[in-house]
Amino acid sequence: MQRYFIDHPSATDRFSIVGEDAKHISKVMRMSVGDQIIVVNNGNAYRTEIDSLEDRVVHVKTIAAIPFSNELPVHVTIACGLPKGDKLELITQKATELGVSEIIPFQAERSIVKWEPSKSTKKLERLNRIAKEAAEQSHRTVIPTIQNVQSFGSLLNREGNDHHLFFAYEEQAKRTDRTSFSEHLRTIDFGQSIFIAFGPEGGFSPNEAQQFIAAGFKPIALGPRILRTETAPLYVLSAISYQFE
Protein backbone atom coordinates (compact mmCIF):
# COMPACT_ATOMS: atom_id res chain seq x y z
CA MET A 1 0.00 0.00 0.00
CA GLN A 2 1.36 3.42 -0.98
CA ARG A 3 2.62 5.57 1.90
CA TYR A 4 2.71 9.37 2.04
CA PHE A 5 4.07 11.76 4.67
CA ILE A 6 2.25 14.97 5.55
CA ASP A 7 3.73 17.70 7.71
CA HIS A 8 0.65 19.59 8.82
CA PRO A 9 -1.33 18.66 11.96
CA SER A 10 -4.92 17.50 11.90
CA ALA A 11 -7.30 17.40 14.85
CA THR A 12 -9.83 15.24 13.00
CA ASP A 13 -9.88 11.87 11.30
CA ARG A 14 -9.35 13.50 7.91
CA PHE A 15 -6.16 14.56 6.14
CA SER A 16 -5.30 16.55 3.03
CA ILE A 17 -2.40 15.58 0.79
CA VAL A 18 -1.15 18.40 -1.41
CA GLY A 19 1.49 19.26 -4.01
CA GLU A 20 3.59 16.64 -5.73
CA ASP A 21 2.25 13.82 -3.56
CA ALA A 22 -1.31 14.64 -4.59
CA LYS A 23 -0.23 14.70 -8.23
CA HIS A 24 1.52 11.35 -7.76
CA ILE A 25 -1.69 9.82 -6.37
CA SER A 26 -3.97 11.11 -9.10
CA LYS A 27 -1.72 11.13 -12.19
CA VAL A 28 0.99 8.51 -11.61
CA MET A 29 -0.80 5.93 -9.46
CA ARG A 30 -4.17 6.78 -11.09
CA MET A 31 -6.03 6.19 -7.84
CA SER A 32 -9.69 6.99 -7.40
CA VAL A 33 -12.23 7.60 -4.64
CA GLY A 34 -12.41 4.57 -2.36
CA ASP A 35 -8.79 3.49 -2.84
CA GLN A 36 -6.72 3.12 0.32
CA ILE A 37 -3.32 4.59 1.19
CA ILE A 38 -1.22 4.99 4.32
CA VAL A 39 -0.74 8.50 5.67
CA VAL A 40 2.03 9.29 8.16
CA ASN A 41 1.61 12.39 10.30
CA ASN A 42 3.88 13.38 13.18
CA GLY A 43 5.33 9.88 13.52
CA ASN A 44 1.96 8.12 13.47
CA ALA A 45 0.72 5.99 10.57
CA TYR A 46 -2.90 5.62 9.51
CA ARG A 47 -4.71 3.48 6.95
CA THR A 48 -6.95 5.86 5.07
CA GLU A 49 -9.46 5.93 2.22
CA ILE A 50 -9.60 8.56 -0.51
CA ASP A 51 -12.65 10.84 -0.18
CA SER A 52 -11.97 13.13 -3.13
CA LEU A 53 -9.02 13.97 -5.35
CA GLU A 54 -7.78 16.60 -7.72
CA ASP A 55 -4.43 17.26 -9.38
CA ARG A 56 -3.02 19.21 -6.43
CA VAL A 57 -5.02 18.06 -3.40
CA VAL A 58 -6.32 14.70 -2.19
CA HIS A 59 -8.66 14.36 0.79
CA VAL A 60 -8.66 11.13 2.80
CA LYS A 61 -10.48 9.82 5.86
CA THR A 62 -8.94 7.58 8.51
CA ILE A 63 -10.00 3.96 8.67
CA ALA A 64 -7.65 2.82 11.42
CA ALA A 65 -4.42 3.74 13.15
CA ILE A 66 -1.44 1.46 12.53
CA PRO A 67 -0.17 0.66 16.04
CA PHE A 68 3.28 -0.77 15.33
CA SER A 69 6.44 1.14 14.37
CA ASN A 70 9.23 0.15 11.99
CA GLU A 71 11.77 2.49 13.57
CA LEU A 72 15.07 1.36 15.06
CA PRO A 73 14.87 1.06 18.86
CA VAL A 74 17.96 3.29 19.12
CA HIS A 75 18.52 6.79 17.73
CA VAL A 76 21.39 6.76 15.23
CA THR A 77 23.12 9.84 13.82
CA ILE A 78 25.77 9.46 11.13
CA ALA A 79 28.17 12.24 10.22
CA CYS A 80 29.78 11.87 6.80
CA GLY A 81 32.89 13.65 5.60
CA LEU A 82 31.88 15.16 2.26
CA PRO A 83 32.49 12.50 -0.40
CA LYS A 84 32.91 12.89 -4.15
CA GLY A 85 30.17 12.63 -6.76
CA ASP A 86 26.72 11.41 -5.77
CA LYS A 87 27.90 9.18 -2.92
CA LEU A 88 26.13 11.29 -0.30
CA GLU A 89 22.87 10.73 -2.16
CA LEU A 90 23.46 6.97 -2.08
CA ILE A 91 24.29 7.10 1.63
CA THR A 92 21.14 9.13 2.31
CA GLN A 93 18.89 6.73 0.44
CA LYS A 94 20.27 3.49 1.86
CA ALA A 95 20.82 4.81 5.38
CA THR A 96 17.19 5.93 5.46
CA GLU A 97 16.09 2.43 4.46
CA LEU A 98 18.26 1.03 7.27
CA GLY A 99 16.72 3.28 9.94
CA VAL A 100 19.07 6.23 10.44
CA SER A 101 17.60 9.17 12.39
CA GLU A 102 19.91 12.00 11.33
CA ILE A 103 22.59 12.62 8.70
CA ILE A 104 25.22 15.34 9.05
CA PRO A 105 27.59 16.08 6.14
CA PHE A 106 30.76 17.84 7.23
CA GLN A 107 33.96 19.25 5.79
CA ALA A 108 36.85 16.93 6.69
CA GLU A 109 40.54 17.56 6.09
CA ARG A 110 40.61 15.06 3.26
CA SER A 111 37.31 16.06 1.67
CA ILE A 112 38.04 16.92 -1.94
CA VAL A 113 34.68 18.51 -2.68
CA LYS A 114 33.23 21.58 -1.02
CA TRP A 115 29.66 22.79 -0.84
CA GLU A 116 29.33 26.26 -2.26
CA PRO A 117 26.86 28.31 -0.21
CA SER A 118 24.97 29.27 -3.38
CA LYS A 119 24.28 25.59 -4.14
CA SER A 120 23.76 24.39 -0.59
CA THR A 121 19.98 24.93 -0.55
CA LYS A 122 19.40 22.92 -3.72
CA LYS A 123 21.65 20.10 -2.51
CA LEU A 124 19.75 19.90 0.79
CA GLU A 125 16.41 19.94 -1.00
CA ARG A 126 17.50 17.00 -3.14
CA LEU A 127 18.82 15.03 -0.16
CA ASN A 128 15.60 15.65 1.77
CA ARG A 129 13.55 14.49 -1.21
CA ILE A 130 15.66 11.32 -1.45
CA ALA A 131 15.21 10.68 2.28
CA LYS A 132 11.43 11.19 2.06
CA GLU A 133 11.05 8.80 -0.87
CA ALA A 134 13.25 6.20 0.83
CA ALA A 135 11.26 6.52 4.07
CA GLU A 136 8.02 5.96 2.16
CA GLN A 137 9.45 2.98 0.29
CA SER A 138 10.77 1.33 3.46
CA HIS A 139 7.52 1.99 5.40
CA ARG A 140 9.06 4.20 8.05
CA THR A 141 7.12 6.60 10.25
CA VAL A 142 9.94 9.16 10.50
CA ILE A 143 11.91 10.94 7.77
CA PRO A 144 15.55 11.37 8.83
CA THR A 145 16.79 14.88 9.48
CA ILE A 146 19.39 16.04 6.95
CA GLN A 147 21.56 18.81 8.37
CA ASN A 148 23.38 21.47 6.38
CA VAL A 149 27.09 20.88 5.92
CA GLN A 150 29.07 21.55 9.10
CA SER A 151 32.68 22.20 9.97
CA PHE A 152 34.77 19.61 11.76
CA GLY A 153 34.89 21.85 14.83
CA SER A 154 31.11 22.12 15.07
CA LEU A 155 30.93 18.35 14.87
CA LEU A 156 33.17 18.01 17.94
CA ASN A 157 31.18 20.63 19.85
CA ARG A 158 27.77 19.22 18.92
CA GLU A 159 25.09 19.98 21.45
CA GLY A 160 22.83 17.15 22.48
CA ASN A 161 22.52 14.09 24.64
CA ASP A 162 24.30 11.47 22.57
CA HIS A 163 24.98 8.48 24.80
CA HIS A 164 27.67 6.88 22.64
CA LEU A 165 30.20 8.64 20.41
CA PHE A 166 32.27 6.77 17.79
CA PHE A 167 34.37 7.47 14.73
CA ALA A 168 35.35 4.91 12.11
CA TYR A 169 39.15 4.85 11.86
CA GLU A 170 41.03 2.59 9.48
CA GLU A 171 44.15 2.57 11.66
CA GLN A 172 42.03 0.86 14.30
CA ALA A 173 41.26 -1.93 11.82
CA LYS A 174 44.99 -2.70 11.57
CA ARG A 175 45.35 -3.36 15.29
CA THR A 176 45.37 -6.98 16.44
CA ASP A 177 44.00 -5.99 19.85
CA ARG A 178 41.08 -4.00 18.47
CA THR A 179 37.64 -4.13 20.10
CA SER A 180 35.06 -5.39 17.64
CA PHE A 181 32.11 -3.17 16.83
CA SER A 182 29.76 -5.88 18.11
CA GLU A 183 31.42 -5.60 21.52
CA HIS A 184 30.76 -1.86 21.54
CA LEU A 185 27.13 -2.48 20.60
CA ARG A 186 26.65 -4.78 23.57
CA THR A 187 27.27 -1.78 25.87
CA ILE A 188 24.33 0.14 24.34
CA ASP A 189 20.80 -0.06 25.71
CA PHE A 190 17.49 0.21 23.90
CA GLY A 191 16.36 3.81 23.60
CA GLN A 192 19.84 5.29 23.72
CA SER A 193 21.43 7.46 21.03
CA ILE A 194 24.51 6.66 18.93
CA PHE A 195 26.63 9.18 17.04
CA ILE A 196 29.12 7.82 14.49
CA ALA A 197 31.42 9.85 12.24
CA PHE A 198 32.83 8.57 8.96
CA GLY A 199 35.63 10.07 6.95
CA PRO A 200 35.63 10.91 3.23
CA GLU A 201 37.79 9.11 0.69
CA GLY A 202 41.14 8.72 2.42
CA GLY A 203 39.60 8.55 5.87
CA PHE A 204 40.43 10.73 8.84
CA SER A 205 43.82 12.33 9.32
CA PRO A 206 45.85 11.56 12.49
CA ASN A 207 45.12 15.11 13.65
CA GLU A 208 41.36 14.59 13.33
CA ALA A 209 41.62 11.24 15.12
CA GLN A 210 43.39 12.89 18.05
CA GLN A 211 40.72 15.59 18.25
CA PHE A 212 37.95 13.00 18.20
CA ILE A 213 39.53 11.07 21.06
CA ALA A 214 40.08 14.27 23.06
CA ALA A 215 36.37 15.06 22.61
CA GLY A 216 35.32 11.67 23.99
CA PHE A 217 34.79 9.71 20.77
CA LYS A 218 35.88 6.07 20.62
CA PRO A 219 37.65 4.81 17.49
CA ILE A 220 36.00 1.77 15.93
CA ALA A 221 37.13 -0.77 13.37
CA LEU A 222 34.57 -2.18 10.97
CA GLY A 223 36.18 -5.57 10.56
CA PRO A 224 39.66 -6.26 9.18
CA ARG A 225 38.90 -4.80 5.73
CA ILE A 226 38.97 -1.15 4.70
CA LEU A 227 35.53 -0.07 3.49
CA ARG A 228 34.65 2.67 1.04
CA THR A 229 33.24 5.89 2.43
CA GLU A 230 29.76 5.04 1.09
CA THR A 231 29.90 1.45 2.40
CA ALA A 232 30.98 2.08 5.99
CA PRO A 233 27.75 3.81 7.22
CA LEU A 234 25.63 1.04 5.72
CA TYR A 235 27.80 -1.62 7.39
CA VAL A 236 27.32 0.10 10.75
CA LEU A 237 23.56 0.51 10.37
CA SER A 238 23.19 -3.13 9.34
CA ALA A 239 25.16 -4.22 12.41
CA ILE A 240 22.99 -2.02 14.66
CA SER A 241 19.83 -3.46 13.12
CA TYR A 242 21.11 -7.00 13.66
CA GLN A 243 21.96 -6.23 17.29
CA PHE A 244 18.71 -4.55 18.23
CA GLU A 245 16.12 -5.96 15.85
UniProtKB/TrEMBL annotation:
Domain (Ribosomal RNA small subunit methyltransferase E PUA-like) ranges: 19-56
Keyword Transferase: yes
Catalytic activity, EC: 2.1.1.193
PANTHER family assigned to the protein according to its UniProt record, in alphabetical order: 16S RRNA (URACIL(1498)-N(3))-METHYLTRANSFERASE, RIBOSOMAL RNA SMALL SUBUNIT METHYLTRANSFERASE E
Family: Belongs to the RNA methyltransferase RsmE family.
Ribosomal RNA small subunit methyltransferase E methyltransferase domain residues: 71-241
Keyword tags: Cytoplasm, Methyltransferase, rRNA processing, S-adenosyl-L-methionine, Transferase
Compartments where found: Cytoplasm
Taxonomic classification: Bacteria, Bacillati, Bacillota, Bacilli, Bacillales
GO molecular function, one term: rRNA (uridine-N3-)-methyltransferase activity
Organism, scientific name: Paenisporosarcina cavernae
An example Gene Ontology biological process: rRNA base methylation
UniProt function note: Specifically methylates the N3 position of the uracil ring of uridine 1498 (m3U1498) in 16S rRNA. Acts on the fully assembled 30S ribosomal subunit.
InterPro entries (alphabetical): Alpha/beta_knot_MTases (IPR029028), PUA-like_sf (IPR015947), RsmE (IPR006700), RsmE_MTase_dom (IPR046886), RsmE_PUA-like (IPR046887), tRNA_m1G_MTases_N (IPR029026)
Full protein name: Ribosomal RNA small subunit methyltransferase E
Pfam families per record: Methyltrans_RNA, PUA_4
Catalytic activity: uridine(1498) in 16S rRNA + S-adenosyl-L-methionine = N(3)-methyluridine(1498) in 16S rRNA + S-adenosyl-L-homocysteine + H(+)
GO cellular component terms, semicolon-separated: cytoplasm
